[in-house]
Amino acid sequence: MSPLTLTQRLVRKPDQIFTDMDGDTVMMEPESGRYFGISGTGSRIWKLLEQPQTVNAIIETICAEYEVDIEQCEADTLAFCQSLLDNQLAEIQA
Fold first, then answer.
1. Each residue of 35-67: pLDDT tens digit?
2. Do the beta carbons of residue 38 and residue 1 sit within 8 Å?
């Protein structure tokens, strides 16, 4: 798979099971039965992916809501979103 780009549009996979627990997100990927936990900006990104979003739009939102350097936000967001894809929690929309 080629690296994720800023212009690609991501969305949660529709069959994900998840819940909010005091600001953290706990989820289960149904095919593998694996559990995941995310917090902080990861939970915010997960919420944003309720609707299709470009990686760039996610970065803009996170930078507007949190005190973070744009370059660091870009690197962290790309890595986090790639992890969601790798773990079959999100998908790229054509």
1. 999 999 999 999 999 999 999 999 999 999 999
2. no
* pTM for the model: 0.90
Q: Is residue 34 in a domain? A: yes
Buried-exposed string 1-38: b where 16+ CB fall within 10 A, e elsewhere: eeebeeebebebbeebebeeeeeebebebeeeeeebeb
In whole angstroms, give the CA distance from residue 49 to residue 87: 15
Give the range of the structural domain holding residue 18, as residue numbers without chain letter.
Answer: 9-88
Cα 18 from Cα 54, distance rounded (Å): 22
* Cα–Cα distance for residue pair 4/17, rounded to 1 Å: 24
Q: What is the CATH number of the domain that holds 13?
A: 3.90.930
Distance CA 68, CA 91 (A): 26
Cβ atoms 92, 10 nearer than 8 A: yes
